[in-house]
Design brief:
The chain is of the alpha/beta class and 416 residues long. 36% of the residues lie in helices and 12% in strands. The protein has 14 helices and 13 strands. It binds pyridoxal-5'-phosphate (PLP). Pyridoxal-5'-phosphate binds next to helix 5 and helix 6.
Protein backbone atom coordinates (compact mmCIF):
# COMPACT_ATOMS: atom_id res chain seq x y z
CA UNK A 1 0.00 0.00 0.00
CA UNK A 2 1.12 3.57 -0.63
CA UNK A 3 1.16 5.18 2.78
CA UNK A 4 1.07 8.91 3.42
CA UNK A 5 2.30 10.76 6.45
CA UNK A 6 -0.81 12.85 7.04
CA UNK A 7 -3.47 12.67 9.71
CA UNK A 8 -6.14 12.55 6.99
CA UNK A 9 -4.60 9.38 5.62
CA UNK A 10 -4.42 7.81 9.10
CA UNK A 11 -8.07 8.64 9.69
CA UNK A 12 -8.93 7.05 6.37
CA UNK A 13 -7.16 3.86 7.47
CA UNK A 14 -9.18 4.00 10.70
CA UNK A 15 -12.42 4.37 8.79
CA UNK A 16 -11.59 1.21 6.82
CA UNK A 17 -10.48 -0.77 9.86
CA UNK A 18 -12.85 -3.68 10.52
CA UNK A 19 -11.78 -3.75 14.20
CA UNK A 20 -12.20 -0.02 14.73
CA UNK A 21 -15.23 -0.30 17.02
CA UNK A 22 -13.33 -2.47 19.52
CA UNK A 23 -11.52 0.63 20.73
CA UNK A 24 -14.81 1.68 22.36
CA UNK A 25 -14.82 -1.58 24.29
CA UNK A 26 -11.78 -0.44 26.28
CA UNK A 27 -11.05 2.22 28.85
CA UNK A 28 -8.40 4.50 27.31
CA UNK A 29 -6.51 6.37 30.08
CA UNK A 30 -7.03 10.14 29.99
CA UNK A 31 -4.50 12.92 30.29
CA UNK A 32 -4.93 15.77 32.80
CA UNK A 33 -6.44 17.90 30.04
CA UNK A 34 -9.15 15.31 29.50
CA UNK A 35 -7.81 14.04 26.18
CA UNK A 36 -7.02 10.38 25.66
CA UNK A 37 -3.42 9.31 26.08
CA UNK A 38 -1.67 7.79 23.10
CA UNK A 39 -1.38 4.45 24.84
CA UNK A 40 1.30 2.28 23.24
CA UNK A 41 2.14 0.18 26.26
CA UNK A 42 -0.04 -2.90 25.84
CA UNK A 43 3.18 -4.93 25.84
CA UNK A 44 3.55 -4.04 29.50
CA UNK A 45 -0.01 -3.68 30.79
CA UNK A 46 -2.94 -4.17 28.46
CA UNK A 47 -5.95 -1.90 28.84
CA UNK A 48 -9.13 -2.84 30.63
CA UNK A 49 -12.03 -4.09 28.54
CA UNK A 50 -15.21 -2.39 29.75
CA UNK A 51 -16.93 -5.74 30.09
CA UNK A 52 -14.39 -6.80 32.74
CA UNK A 53 -16.47 -5.18 35.47
CA UNK A 54 -19.53 -7.21 34.43
CA UNK A 55 -17.63 -10.48 34.74
CA UNK A 56 -16.07 -9.60 38.09
CA UNK A 57 -19.32 -8.22 39.50
CA UNK A 58 -21.03 -11.50 38.73
CA UNK A 59 -18.58 -13.31 41.01
CA UNK A 60 -18.81 -10.67 43.72
CA UNK A 61 -22.60 -10.99 43.65
CA UNK A 62 -22.46 -14.78 43.78
CA UNK A 63 -19.97 -14.67 46.65
CA UNK A 64 -22.37 -12.35 48.52
CA UNK A 65 -25.35 -14.59 47.74
CA UNK A 66 -23.87 -18.04 48.21
CA UNK A 67 -20.76 -17.80 50.36
CA UNK A 68 -18.86 -21.07 50.18
CA UNK A 69 -21.67 -22.70 48.22
CA UNK A 70 -20.67 -20.57 45.26
CA UNK A 71 -18.10 -23.26 44.51
CA UNK A 72 -21.05 -25.28 43.21
CA UNK A 73 -24.03 -22.94 42.99
CA UNK A 74 -22.60 -19.75 41.51
CA UNK A 75 -23.86 -18.98 38.00
CA UNK A 76 -20.36 -19.95 36.91
CA UNK A 77 -19.38 -22.45 39.62
CA UNK A 78 -15.95 -21.73 41.07
CA UNK A 79 -14.88 -25.36 41.38
CA UNK A 80 -14.44 -25.81 37.63
CA UNK A 81 -14.07 -22.08 36.88
CA UNK A 82 -10.59 -22.42 35.33
CA UNK A 83 -12.09 -24.83 32.81
CA UNK A 84 -14.17 -21.97 31.36
CA UNK A 85 -10.91 -20.50 30.05
CA UNK A 86 -9.38 -23.52 28.36
CA UNK A 87 -11.15 -23.35 25.01
CA UNK A 88 -10.25 -19.69 24.45
CA UNK A 89 -6.69 -20.21 25.61
CA UNK A 90 -6.25 -23.25 23.40
CA UNK A 91 -7.14 -21.10 20.38
CA UNK A 92 -4.79 -18.30 21.37
CA UNK A 93 -1.73 -20.54 21.72
CA UNK A 94 -2.68 -23.24 19.20
CA UNK A 95 -3.09 -26.12 21.63
CA UNK A 96 -5.48 -28.88 22.56
CA UNK A 97 -7.76 -27.96 25.43
CA UNK A 98 -6.08 -30.55 27.63
CA UNK A 99 -2.74 -28.82 27.11
CA UNK A 100 -3.48 -25.42 28.67
CA UNK A 101 -4.11 -24.36 32.25
CA UNK A 102 -4.61 -20.97 33.92
CA UNK A 103 -2.72 -20.96 37.21
CA UNK A 104 -0.34 -19.05 39.49
CA UNK A 105 1.80 -16.27 38.07
CA UNK A 106 4.32 -16.33 35.26
CA UNK A 107 7.64 -16.74 37.04
CA UNK A 108 6.08 -19.33 39.37
CA UNK A 109 4.93 -21.31 36.35
CA UNK A 110 8.37 -21.07 34.77
CA UNK A 111 9.83 -22.61 37.92
CA UNK A 112 7.18 -25.33 38.07
CA UNK A 113 7.86 -26.23 34.45
CA UNK A 114 11.60 -26.38 35.11
CA UNK A 115 11.00 -28.67 38.08
CA UNK A 116 9.52 -31.09 35.57
CA UNK A 117 11.54 -30.30 32.46
CA UNK A 118 15.00 -29.43 33.70
CA UNK A 119 16.62 -32.60 34.98
CA UNK A 120 20.33 -31.89 34.70
CA UNK A 121 22.90 -34.68 34.73
CA UNK A 122 26.66 -34.41 34.81
CA UNK A 123 26.73 -34.90 31.08
CA UNK A 124 23.68 -32.82 30.13
CA UNK A 125 23.12 -29.80 32.34
CA UNK A 126 23.19 -26.66 30.21
CA UNK A 127 20.37 -24.21 29.56
CA UNK A 128 20.17 -21.85 26.56
CA UNK A 129 18.45 -18.48 27.00
CA UNK A 130 18.70 -15.05 25.32
CA UNK A 131 21.32 -12.82 26.94
CA UNK A 132 18.75 -10.02 26.94
CA UNK A 133 15.86 -12.18 28.19
CA UNK A 134 13.51 -10.56 30.70
CA UNK A 135 15.52 -10.45 33.96
CA UNK A 136 13.01 -12.57 35.89
CA UNK A 137 13.60 -15.42 33.45
CA UNK A 138 17.36 -15.13 33.86
CA UNK A 139 17.00 -15.15 37.66
CA UNK A 140 14.73 -18.17 37.42
CA UNK A 141 17.04 -20.26 35.23
CA UNK A 142 20.13 -19.29 37.19
CA UNK A 143 18.50 -20.23 40.47
CA UNK A 144 17.39 -23.58 39.01
CA UNK A 145 20.94 -24.32 37.86
CA UNK A 146 22.30 -23.53 41.32
CA UNK A 147 19.51 -25.43 43.03
CA UNK A 148 20.62 -28.55 41.17
CA UNK A 149 24.22 -28.00 42.29
CA UNK A 150 25.64 -26.69 39.01
CA UNK A 151 27.26 -23.36 38.30
CA UNK A 152 25.87 -20.61 36.12
CA UNK A 153 29.30 -20.23 34.59
CA UNK A 154 29.38 -23.82 33.35
CA UNK A 155 25.72 -24.37 32.69
CA UNK A 156 24.15 -21.22 31.26
CA UNK A 157 24.55 -20.37 27.57
CA UNK A 158 23.42 -16.84 26.77
CA UNK A 159 22.51 -16.12 23.18
CA UNK A 160 23.67 -12.81 21.74
CA UNK A 161 23.23 -11.30 18.31
CA UNK A 162 26.24 -10.95 16.05
CA UNK A 163 28.22 -7.74 16.34
CA UNK A 164 26.33 -4.87 14.74
CA UNK A 165 23.05 -6.84 14.67
CA UNK A 166 20.19 -6.71 17.14
CA UNK A 167 18.30 -9.93 16.41
CA UNK A 168 19.48 -13.46 17.12
CA UNK A 169 19.88 -15.67 14.05
CA UNK A 170 18.35 -19.13 14.05
CA UNK A 171 21.48 -20.44 12.31
CA UNK A 172 23.56 -19.27 15.28
CA UNK A 173 21.28 -21.18 17.65
CA UNK A 174 21.66 -24.16 15.35
CA UNK A 175 25.45 -23.88 15.51
CA UNK A 176 25.43 -23.96 19.31
CA UNK A 177 23.09 -26.96 19.32
CA UNK A 178 25.37 -28.65 16.80
CA UNK A 179 28.45 -27.96 18.90
CA UNK A 180 27.20 -28.49 22.45
CA UNK A 181 23.87 -30.26 21.97
CA UNK A 182 24.82 -33.33 24.00
CA UNK A 183 25.43 -31.14 27.03
CA UNK A 184 22.29 -29.01 26.69
CA UNK A 185 19.28 -30.03 28.79
CA UNK A 186 16.90 -27.17 28.08
CA UNK A 187 16.26 -24.34 25.63
CA UNK A 188 14.01 -21.63 27.06
CA UNK A 189 13.41 -18.53 24.94
CA UNK A 190 10.98 -15.66 25.05
CA UNK A 191 8.72 -16.44 22.08
CA UNK A 192 8.82 -12.72 21.38
CA UNK A 193 11.91 -11.14 22.93
CA UNK A 194 10.72 -8.46 25.35
CA UNK A 195 13.50 -6.04 24.43
CA UNK A 196 13.87 -6.20 20.66
CA UNK A 197 10.42 -7.54 19.79
CA UNK A 198 12.02 -10.36 17.77
CA UNK A 199 9.76 -13.35 17.16
CA UNK A 200 11.71 -16.60 17.24
CA UNK A 201 11.23 -19.41 14.76
CA UNK A 202 9.42 -21.67 17.22
CA UNK A 203 9.06 -24.65 14.95
CA UNK A 204 12.62 -24.79 13.67
CA UNK A 205 14.22 -24.22 17.07
CA UNK A 206 11.99 -26.82 18.69
CA UNK A 207 12.90 -29.38 16.06
CA UNK A 208 16.62 -28.59 16.16
CA UNK A 209 16.64 -28.94 19.94
CA UNK A 210 14.51 -32.05 20.22
CA UNK A 211 16.53 -33.84 17.52
CA UNK A 212 19.46 -33.57 19.95
CA UNK A 213 17.41 -34.74 22.93
CA UNK A 214 16.92 -31.23 24.33
CA UNK A 215 13.67 -30.11 25.99
CA UNK A 216 12.32 -26.91 24.40
CA UNK A 217 10.08 -24.41 26.17
CA UNK A 218 9.01 -20.83 25.54
CA UNK A 219 8.05 -17.89 27.68
CA UNK A 220 5.12 -16.38 25.80
CA UNK A 221 4.66 -13.27 27.97
CA UNK A 222 5.05 -11.11 24.86
CA UNK A 223 3.67 -13.61 22.38
CA UNK A 224 0.30 -14.73 23.75
CA UNK A 225 -2.42 -12.62 22.15
CA UNK A 226 0.18 -10.92 19.97
CA UNK A 227 1.35 -13.42 17.34
CA UNK A 228 -0.08 -16.59 15.82
CA UNK A 229 0.96 -19.64 17.79
CA UNK A 230 0.63 -23.34 17.06
CA UNK A 231 2.28 -24.94 20.08
CA UNK A 232 0.75 -28.37 19.70
CA UNK A 233 1.76 -28.88 16.10
CA UNK A 234 5.16 -27.35 16.67
CA UNK A 235 5.63 -30.03 19.34
CA UNK A 236 6.84 -27.48 21.89
CA UNK A 237 7.38 -29.28 25.21
CA UNK A 238 6.04 -26.56 27.48
CA UNK A 239 5.25 -22.86 27.58
CA UNK A 240 4.23 -20.24 30.12
CA UNK A 241 2.64 -16.81 29.78
CA UNK A 242 1.05 -14.05 31.80
CA UNK A 243 -2.38 -12.59 31.17
CA UNK A 244 -1.83 -8.89 31.85
CA UNK A 245 0.15 -7.81 28.77
CA UNK A 246 -1.52 -8.40 25.39
CA UNK A 247 -4.20 -10.43 27.16
CA UNK A 248 -5.56 -7.39 29.00
CA UNK A 249 -6.57 -9.16 32.21
CA UNK A 250 -5.34 -6.68 34.81
CA UNK A 251 -2.20 -6.15 36.87
CA UNK A 252 -0.82 -9.34 38.40
CA UNK A 253 -3.66 -11.43 37.01
CA UNK A 254 -3.36 -15.23 36.98
CA UNK A 255 -0.88 -16.65 34.44
CA UNK A 256 -1.03 -19.84 32.38
CA UNK A 257 0.95 -22.79 31.14
CA UNK A 258 1.02 -25.23 28.24
CA UNK A 259 2.23 -28.80 28.62
CA UNK A 260 2.30 -30.85 25.42
CA UNK A 261 0.02 -33.86 25.55
CA UNK A 262 2.97 -36.22 25.00
CA UNK A 263 3.97 -35.46 28.60
CA UNK A 264 0.58 -35.92 30.26
CA UNK A 265 1.08 -39.57 31.13
CA UNK A 266 4.78 -39.32 31.90
CA UNK A 267 6.39 -39.77 35.27
CA UNK A 268 8.14 -36.43 35.21
CA UNK A 269 8.98 -35.11 38.65
CA UNK A 270 6.74 -32.27 39.73
CA UNK A 271 5.79 -30.17 42.69
CA UNK A 272 2.29 -31.21 43.63
CA UNK A 273 -0.70 -29.52 45.22
CA UNK A 274 -4.31 -30.51 45.80
CA UNK A 275 -5.71 -28.69 42.78
CA UNK A 276 -3.62 -30.89 40.49
CA UNK A 277 -5.08 -34.04 42.04
CA UNK A 278 -7.72 -36.14 40.28
CA UNK A 279 -11.03 -34.36 40.37
CA UNK A 280 -12.99 -37.49 41.32
CA UNK A 281 -11.56 -37.78 44.80
CA UNK A 282 -9.86 -34.44 45.40
CA UNK A 283 -12.27 -33.55 48.16
CA UNK A 284 -11.90 -36.90 49.88
CA UNK A 285 -8.36 -35.68 50.55
CA UNK A 286 -6.65 -39.01 49.91
CA UNK A 287 -3.10 -39.50 51.23
CA UNK A 288 -1.52 -40.23 47.89
CA UNK A 289 -1.26 -37.62 45.14
CA UNK A 290 -2.68 -38.75 41.83
CA UNK A 291 -2.26 -36.08 39.13
CA UNK A 292 -4.87 -35.18 36.56
CA UNK A 293 -3.57 -36.51 33.24
CA UNK A 294 -3.52 -33.16 31.50
CA UNK A 295 -1.93 -29.74 31.98
CA UNK A 296 -4.33 -29.38 34.91
CA UNK A 297 -2.19 -31.86 36.80
CA UNK A 298 0.42 -29.14 37.30
CA UNK A 299 -1.93 -26.94 39.34
CA UNK A 300 -1.13 -26.35 42.98
CA UNK A 301 -3.83 -24.18 44.50
CA UNK A 302 -7.41 -23.20 43.91
CA UNK A 303 -7.10 -20.08 41.73
CA UNK A 304 -8.27 -16.50 42.28
CA UNK A 305 -11.77 -16.45 40.80
CA UNK A 306 -11.87 -12.64 40.59
CA UNK A 307 -8.73 -12.75 38.50
CA UNK A 308 -10.01 -15.59 36.32
CA UNK A 309 -13.21 -13.60 35.78
CA UNK A 310 -11.14 -10.72 34.38
CA UNK A 311 -9.30 -13.14 32.10
CA UNK A 312 -12.58 -14.63 30.96
CA UNK A 313 -13.89 -11.18 30.07
CA UNK A 314 -10.79 -10.47 28.05
CA UNK A 315 -10.73 -13.84 26.32
CA UNK A 316 -14.33 -13.35 25.25
CA UNK A 317 -13.09 -10.38 23.19
CA UNK A 318 -10.37 -12.54 21.62
CA UNK A 319 -12.98 -15.19 20.86
CA UNK A 320 -15.08 -12.65 18.97
CA UNK A 321 -12.20 -11.24 16.95
CA UNK A 322 -9.89 -14.23 16.49
CA UNK A 323 -6.12 -14.14 16.11
CA UNK A 324 -6.20 -13.96 12.31
CA UNK A 325 -7.86 -10.56 12.19
CA UNK A 326 -5.74 -9.30 15.06
CA UNK A 327 -2.52 -10.32 13.42
CA UNK A 328 -3.58 -8.79 10.11
CA UNK A 329 -4.29 -5.41 11.70
CA UNK A 330 -1.18 -5.65 13.85
CA UNK A 331 0.93 -6.01 10.73
CA UNK A 332 -0.75 -3.00 9.13
CA UNK A 333 -0.25 -0.86 12.23
CA UNK A 334 3.45 -1.65 12.51
CA UNK A 335 3.98 -1.34 8.74
CA UNK A 336 2.47 2.12 8.92
CA UNK A 337 4.52 3.02 12.00
CA UNK A 338 7.74 1.90 10.33
CA UNK A 339 6.86 3.87 7.20
CA UNK A 340 6.32 7.00 9.29
CA UNK A 341 9.48 6.57 11.35
CA UNK A 342 11.47 5.98 8.19
CA UNK A 343 10.27 9.31 6.82
CA UNK A 344 11.85 11.25 9.71
CA UNK A 345 15.21 12.64 8.68
CA UNK A 346 17.39 11.98 11.70
CA UNK A 347 20.27 9.79 12.78
CA UNK A 348 19.18 9.94 16.42
CA UNK A 349 16.90 6.90 16.32
CA UNK A 350 17.23 3.41 14.90
CA UNK A 351 14.72 0.53 14.73
CA UNK A 352 16.09 -2.66 16.25
CA UNK A 353 13.02 -4.85 15.76
CA UNK A 354 13.54 -7.36 12.94
CA UNK A 355 10.89 -8.15 10.32
CA UNK A 356 9.91 -11.23 12.34
CA UNK A 357 7.82 -9.26 14.79
CA UNK A 358 4.51 -8.86 16.56
CA UNK A 359 3.09 -5.43 17.30
CA UNK A 360 6.05 -4.16 19.34
CA UNK A 361 8.58 -1.85 17.73
CA UNK A 362 11.78 -1.10 19.65
CA UNK A 363 13.43 2.21 18.87
CA UNK A 364 17.05 2.61 19.89
CA UNK A 365 17.91 6.17 20.88
CA UNK A 366 21.42 7.38 20.10
CA UNK A 367 23.56 7.81 23.21
CA UNK A 368 20.73 6.53 25.39
CA UNK A 369 19.29 10.02 25.55
CA UNK A 370 16.26 9.46 27.81
CA UNK A 371 15.24 13.10 27.51
CA UNK A 372 13.60 12.20 24.22
CA UNK A 373 11.40 9.67 25.97
CA UNK A 374 10.56 12.09 28.81
CA UNK A 375 9.47 14.70 26.29
CA UNK A 376 7.11 12.43 24.38
CA UNK A 377 5.69 11.32 27.72
CA UNK A 378 4.99 14.96 28.60
CA UNK A 379 3.07 15.26 25.35
CA UNK A 380 0.68 12.47 26.19
CA UNK A 381 2.38 9.31 24.91
CA UNK A 382 2.48 6.28 27.20
CA UNK A 383 5.25 3.99 25.96
CA UNK A 384 8.14 2.55 27.89
CA UNK A 385 11.84 3.06 28.26
CA UNK A 386 14.21 0.16 28.71
CA UNK A 387 17.77 0.83 29.74
CA UNK A 388 20.20 1.43 28.29
CA UNK A 389 18.69 3.05 25.21
CA UNK A 390 15.38 1.69 23.96
CA UNK A 391 11.85 3.05 23.66
CA UNK A 392 9.32 0.28 23.16
CA UNK A 393 6.03 1.10 21.49
CA UNK A 394 3.28 -1.40 20.84
CA UNK A 395 0.27 -0.37 18.78
CA UNK A 396 -2.20 -3.04 19.88
CA UNK A 397 -4.72 -4.04 17.21
CA UNK A 398 -7.63 -4.38 19.62
CA UNK A 399 -7.64 -0.79 20.82
CA UNK A 400 -5.00 1.26 19.03
CA UNK A 401 -5.82 3.17 15.88
CA UNK A 402 -3.84 4.30 12.86
CA UNK A 403 -4.30 7.85 14.10
CA UNK A 404 -2.66 6.84 17.43
CA UNK A 405 0.29 5.72 15.35
CA UNK A 406 0.28 8.95 13.35
CA UNK A 407 -0.02 11.14 16.47
CA UNK A 408 2.87 9.30 18.10
CA UNK A 409 5.01 9.84 15.02
CA UNK A 410 4.07 13.50 14.87
CA UNK A 411 5.04 14.05 18.51
CA UNK A 412 8.29 12.13 18.15
CA UNK A 413 9.18 14.07 15.00
CA UNK A 414 8.48 17.40 16.71
CA UNK A 415 10.58 16.46 19.71
CA UNK A 416 13.43 15.24 17.51
C1 LIG B 1 6.39 -9.62 32.01
C2 LIG B 1 7.35 -10.74 32.07
C3 LIG B 1 7.60 -11.40 33.28
C4 LIG B 1 6.95 -10.97 34.56
O1 LIG B 1 6.90 -12.01 35.46
P1 LIG B 1 5.74 -12.13 36.57
O2 LIG B 1 6.05 -13.42 37.21
O3 LIG B 1 4.43 -12.07 35.87
O4 LIG B 1 5.89 -10.97 37.50
C5 LIG B 1 8.49 -12.47 33.25
N1 LIG B 1 9.09 -12.86 32.10
C6 LIG B 1 8.87 -12.24 30.92
C7 LIG B 1 9.54 -12.70 29.67
C8 LIG B 1 8.00 -11.14 30.89
O5 LIG B 1 7.80 -10.50 29.72
Amino acid sequence: MNYKNTLEFALELDANDELQHYRNEFHIPLQKNGEEHIYLCGNSLGLQAKRTAVFINQELADWATFGVEGHFHAKNPWMPYHEFLTESYSKIVGAKQSEVIAMNTLTVNLHLMMVSFYQPTEKRHKIIIEADAFPSDIYAVESQIKYHGYSVEDSLIKLTPRGGESAIRTEDIEAIIEREGDEIALIILGGVNYYTGQVFDFETITKLGQDKGIVVGFDLAHAAGNVKLDLHNWEVDFAVWCSYKYLNSGPGSVAAAFVHEKHHHSNLPRFAGWWGHNKEDRFEMPDEFSPIKSAEGWQLSNPSILSLAAIRASLSVFDEVGMDKLVRKSKQLTDYLLFLLDSIETDRIEIITPKERGCQISIRVKNGNKELFDKITEKGVIADWRDPDVIRVAPVPLYNSFSDVFNFYNILKTVL
